[in-house]
Amino acid sequence: MKKSSFSSSFRKWLCVGLLPVFLFGSVPAFAKEKFKVAWTIYAGWMPWDYAAQSGIIKKWADKYGIDIDVVQVNDYVESINQYTAGGFDGCVMTNMDALTIPAAGGVDSTALIVGDYSNGNDGIVLKGKSSLKDIKGQPVNLVQLSVSHYLLARALETQGMSEKDVKVVNTSDADIVSAYTTKDVTAAVTWNPLLSEILKQPDSHLVFDSSKIPGEIIDLMVVKTDKLKAHPELGKALTGAWYEIMSEMSGSDAKAKEARTAMAKASGTDLAGYDQQLKATNMFYQPANAVLFTTDPHLKLTMQMVAEFSMQHGLLGDNAPSAESIGVETPSGIYGDKNNVKLRFDPSYMQMAADGKL
Amino acid sequence: MARLINRQPDRLGRWILALLPFVLLLVLYLLSSEARLAVNPNDKLLPSFPTIFDAIVKMAFEPNRRTGEYLLWADTLSSLRLLLLGVGISALMGLTVGLLNGGIPLIRIPCSPVVTALSLIPPMAILPILFIVFGLGDLAKVMLIVIGICPILIRDLQLKTLSLPEEQLIKAQTLGASTSQILLRMMLPQVLPRLIEAIRLTLGSAWLFLIAAEAIAATEGLGYRIFLVRRYLDMSIILPYVVWITLLAFAMDWILKVTSRKAFPWYFGRNGEAQG
Question: Which residues pair with A114 in a beta bridge?
Answer without folding.
Answer: A220
